[in-house]
Amino acid sequence: MTESSLHPWDRAAPERAGKPSAYALLPEDFAALGAPGRAEHLFVQCQHPWAWVDDRPRLSRAIREWMARNLDLVLPEILERRVSEDGSTKLVLGLSDGEHIEAVHLPSEFRDPRLTLCLSSQVGCAMGCTFCATGAMGIKRNLTAGEIVGQVLVLLRVLGIKRTQRITLLFMGMGEPLHNLEHVHRAIRVFNHKQGLNISVRRITVSTSGLANGIERLARLSPRPWLAISLNATTDAARSALMPVNRVWNLARLRQALAAWPLGARERLTLEYVLMAGVNDTVEDADRIGEWMGSLRERHNLNLIRMNEHAASAFKEPDEGRLVAFADRLKARGCFVTVRKSRGRDVQGACGQLVRADSRRG
């Protein structure tokens, strides 16, 4: 197979060159680079934004000078904040090469101090899903691990998040995380480190459009996050029309990859199904989901999501009666169903609505 015949998601996305980011290094990396001072101290200072001074890690002058010579210290910059009526916030972040990405802050609707951050993994996306605004952009480049970690550090700092708050991370923003697995997993290792943010993998979810080979690669890595899969159709013909990835990794092949996923104790797979009026919302579709899932019904969450409408797609959300009938049919088949409330719709911050700021003007 020649490079030109590969599908966009089989080709490596463009990468950004440059010095390694200080925010993507683990303690052993600082030690291997010969950094002055204790490697663990450098890591902690870089990963604890609540202790920073003037939006930068608290470090001695000699260490700052060494880092300036050897490492990339640039963090994403908050360019725009749009607060939704439901309390969520969409943030546009500028990268040092002029590209823009978007992230979403979802404060807890409950009384505990939990918050959720929805992160981007690429500038744009190669997957071309027809209902997704990001997919209409095409792929620009992968985010580096430092830019992924930097999203979180900057958001924690800007939003005034306290160290005691529980953080949940969702790789459900711009991009296909498994198309950028090396950088995404490096960022997960940093997030999970006990001396850093110490975010449990139970609170880190990677969402994929269905790259079966990527799912199998992720299953072999440690630490391993939880997995969410965008299903969105129940026949290969329908799914291929909505999601070009299905033309290579069809429903049977996707089901094979999920069957091999090594579920941990109390771990569940999350299946995401975006309901589009007149496209994939019949009771027959619900029956086919149950058949396709088979034994997965015992260890899954099935999230139903109303289509979040946007200018890049003509699809519409179904009416309430259609949604209820669909959910009831799934429940009758033994599926654990949640109708997910999309937050941030009024600021174009909901699932499928994220798009690079300059592409909206194009």
Q: What's the architecture in CATH terms?
A: Alpha-Beta Barrel
- Helices and strands, in order, run as HHHEEEEEEHEHEHEHHEHEHEH
- Which strand-content bin applies to the residues? 15-25%
Output the structural class. Answer: alpha/beta
According to CATH, what is the topology? TIM Barrel
Helix content: 25-40%
Task: Tell me the number of structural domains.
Answer: 1
Largest sheet: 10 strands, mixed
CATH hierarchy, class? Alpha Beta
CATH superfamily: Aldolase class I
Rg (C-alpha, Å): 21 Å
User: Segments where pLDDT lies below 50 for 5+ residues?
Assistant: 343-350
Number of helices: 11
What is the number of E strands? Answer: 12
Globally, the shape reads elongated
Mean pLDDT across residues: 89
Strand order of the biggest β-sheet: 1-2-3-4-7-8-9-10-11-12
State the end-to-end distance.
34 Å
Describe the protein in words.
Helix content is about 30%, strand content about 20%. With about 350 residues, it is an alpha/beta fold. The protein has one domain: Aldolase class I (TIM Barrel). The chain starts with about 25 loop residues before the first helix and ends with a helix.
